[in-house]
Specification:
The chain is α+β, with helices and mostly antiparallel strands and about 50 residues long. It has one helix spanning about 20-45; strands at about 5, 10. The chain is built from 1 helix and 2 strands.
C-alpha cells in the first residue's frame, strides 16, 4: 500500500490519508476479534457445574 505524496500529505488508497487507513484497519481488527470471541462462546461454552 504505497501512498502518494501530494502537497506534503501522504495520501493512501482512494485519496484517504494514512491515518484514516490505519483507523480502518484497527476497526476491522477489533470487529473480527469481537466476532471471534462471540463465536467461541457460542460454539464452545464454558462448562457449567
Amino acid at each position: 500500500m504505497a501512498g502518494v505524496i501530494r502537497r506534503g500529505v501522504v495520501a493512501g488508497i482512494g485519496g484517504r490519508s494514512v491515518r484514516e487507513l490505519a483507523l480502518e484497519v484497527v476497526d476491522e481488527y477489533v470487529q473480527a476479534q469481537s466476532t471471534g470471541a462471540v463465536l467461541d462462546r457460542l460454539l464452545d461454552p464454558p462448562p457449567t457445574h
